[in-house]
Amino acid sequence: MNRVHDVIRRYKASVEVVRHGVEIFVVGDPAGARLNAAVRSLAYTVSENSSDVRGDLLRAANALRWRRMMQPQPDGFHLAVTEAASAVVREARMLRGAVADEVLLDEIAAAAQGVCQTDSPVSGELWRSIEEADPSICAVVASSNRARAGLQEWLTSLSVPVLLPGELSDVSERVEQLYVVGPPSFFPPSLVTAPAANELTFLMPAWFRHRAIPVSRFADQADGAIKARVREWTVGDLSEPEAPISDDEPMEDVYYPQPIWRGRISGDSEPGPDEAEAWKVLLAGNLAIWLDDGDRIRALDPRQPEGERVTYAAVKDVVPGTYLVLRDGETERGAMYEAALHLMGPRAGAIEATQRGWKTALEERLASRGVRASIAELRARGVRSAARVRAWTETTLISPKNEQDLVLLLEWLGLAAEPSHQNAMALRRAVYQASADLREELENAVSRADLAALERDGRMSLDIQREGFRSIVVAKVQARSPYTEIVPRLRTRVPFFDRSGEWLE
Asked: Is this structure's pTM higher than 0.85?
């Protein structure tokens, strides 16, 4: 389907959605309601006491509540619920004797076990609705890759596609009904304002109170903005425990799992010779990396056709949802550098000597002038990427990306442009060749891998036989810190264990 045809189809679907309205099925879920009440009580207690001692329990409970709401498939297709429920019980047990309110600990543990032992009624309503409407004209919209993977496995026998909001341009023209799993507020307004089907239905548990349809921030200024009416239907057992915390109580109740950021500890100091400013990036599988300001990093896009999945992502484009391809225990750059020197054969020694020469001179100049002053001087000379001058001292970073920047840098250092410039360009070409060879092997490994499991779990290992690359991990980015930290350069881009993103989607 071309873009013009898709736009026309969405305009027609918009007319139908405005005419018939958006449906919201509000499904009673007593077990989920009990958990929600317990989580709200815990969140209120934590906020009142300004204490972090219950922080791990609250994060695990929030994750369980979120999964109950956004991934309602039955327990046999939902190991993530069992995992989160077990964590809640474990954290509650560890806090016994450490906090005064053990009644609350018992309640939240019992609520977690109750959720684990009962399927969400939302799943039964979703299955019934699809069968009643005819599976051949239905599609399901999930909130995340992990949610999609679980729902897709469960709905396999119905042959109903499960998509993310950003993939709705791929919806078949014969699809007339979209079922969106979760409250409207957790989905983009485009689901309503640019619908991919004539009928749109949200399914959500009754204990989540906010049911407003998302509206574009430009709606108030737009002439003739789409404003669909809402038809709400209640289903099932709506009974809930008496809420110890009123819905009107002012408190911060975060449903979507949040990353843990401790705050910058480096202050305003400049990185030392062997240090770098880097963002902390949380990855699936309790991993993290320090991401420096290099030009790019190897990534994987499972949506691309076979042979085109392994690519590079610009550092600025590394965001939640990006899949990074990382060498466990050491950066890929170091191995690529060694492989490139091997390709250079007898020229390697001379090339290493000139590289070492200008990088040593640069380190000395930065030490004497300071980084900020050096950047200003280089910019005055026309060096476009002067802000990255500190990174150029690293052995495995061959040279500035722009050739002219290297020539200007050498002049600033008082060095002859040749043979340093030509040697750097030759070494860079060798690195590209070594990288291309590795990419081919990675593509072959990816073609043998279970990409459905990658989308479900967010992490997998690749079987590579190449020397020095036998421990390759692919991991999904969960979050990226809003600030940089000064860390040893040798630690950048190397995966390490970190639980800060344990419960992120």
From this structure: no
